[in-house]
Amino acid sequence: MAEFNTIDDFDVENKTVLVRVDINSPVDPSSGLILDDTRLKLHAQTIKELSVKGAKVVLLAHQSRPGKNDFTTLSQHAEALSDILNLRVKYIDSLFSNSAKEAIQSLKPHEILLLENARFFSEESLSRTPEEQSKTLLVRNLSPFVDYFVNDAFAAAHRSQASLVGFTVDTPSAAGRVMEKELTVIQSALDDVEHPCVFLLGGMKPDDSIDVMENVLSNGTADSILTTGIVGNIVLWASGADIGEVNREFITNKGYADMVEKSKDLIERFGDKVKYPIDVACEIDGERVDIDVGEIPNEAIFDIGVNTIAMYANEIRDAKYIFANGPAGVFEDPKFAMGTEDLINAMANSEGFTLIGGGHIAAATAGLGLEDQMGHLSSGGGACISMLAGKKLAAVEALKNSKK
Q1: What does the pLDDT look like over 344-361, one tens digit per residue?
Q2: φ/ψ (deg, to 5) at 355
Q3: Closest by alpha carbon to 342, among 309, 391, 315?
Q4: How confident is the model at residue 2 (pLDDT cuts 50, 70, 90)?
Q5: Residues 178, 46: contact at Cβ < 8 Å?
Q6: pTM given for the model
Q7: Buried b (16+ CB within 10 A) or exposed e, 38-73
Q8: Between the CA atoms of 298, 257, 157 and 350, what dihedral angle is there, to the nearest 10 degrees?
Q9: Is the distance from CB of 161 to CB of 127 less than 8 angstroms?
Q10: Which domains does the chain carry?
């Protein structure tokens, strides 16, 4: 962690510290209430530590994005954080207006202020270099009022947006406790991986997963790749199986047709290290039906089949390291939750180190009450899988450059 500063490197007493957190939370579209406060609880350690040390804490965060039903203010987040911290978190419905600046200047040591949703500011949606982001209105207006910038938003660390990288150019910057822990655990797991090492890759973002597949097979990290979800369907198609017109159309319409050729290349290069389903589950007459891959009808595939579950579970139980990203199927439907839940149970019962890569599979793990039986449950699916794919995280690189 010597590549960038942490909170330990700064004396924050009586200093104004701007903290970028990721408290983006699921919100009930009808009631507007926060449905899950996991991310707020995660950042509580960083916020409380800075407050206890006498900092004037200013929180910068986002909620959803324009056009989404849960794109809303952060007033409720301030209330929820107050309850979690057992400290009052002030809130102002502004980012850098005169009233926001006055609220920041009037803060006393130990006090906490949450600014408005950063994505209400249109420039936040643009991905640019830290130097370019340092010239945005957000950064130019707020940086004169803060002494330090702390980035704790690991879940958004793969993005190069103003609130994530802009302040690092001219303001002394550090990683918060969530960022520090995530980077330490994931990097050390990759650097000191034990074998056999299994990657379980599924979900709805096959481009990310196939980048991971290529990286960890090429560098020798992975001994076996177990594919599920849309990833599994793409690799199955690449293997020569007839997955049915409806599933081919779905993959093509999502813009993932080129992933089939990439998967075909990986199968040719790495052979049986790339595993794909031997049976799948479809919905026929309202029921789950498990079907051998040689007999897939023209029906949507919603889960891996029972024989695939058994085959994958055996590999997971024998592994020393297991990295998992993405659910095995449409786990929100009880009929098709079997693949996701059984593989999570296999990971929980494995003696190997298990890293759950955030997102839906982390939610499914928490839903089963098994998060404490995993080695590490990442808070950031996109950032975690970018690291596994060997990509640099924009916000982390910005912190490194800030220290330099």
Answers
A1: 999 999 999 999 987 889
A2: -115, 115
A3: 309
A4: confident
A5: yes
A6: 0.90
A7: ebbebbbebbbbbbebebbbbbbbbbbeeeeebebe
A8: 50
A9: yes
A10: 7-182+394-403 (3.40.50.1260), 195-351 (3.40.50.1260)
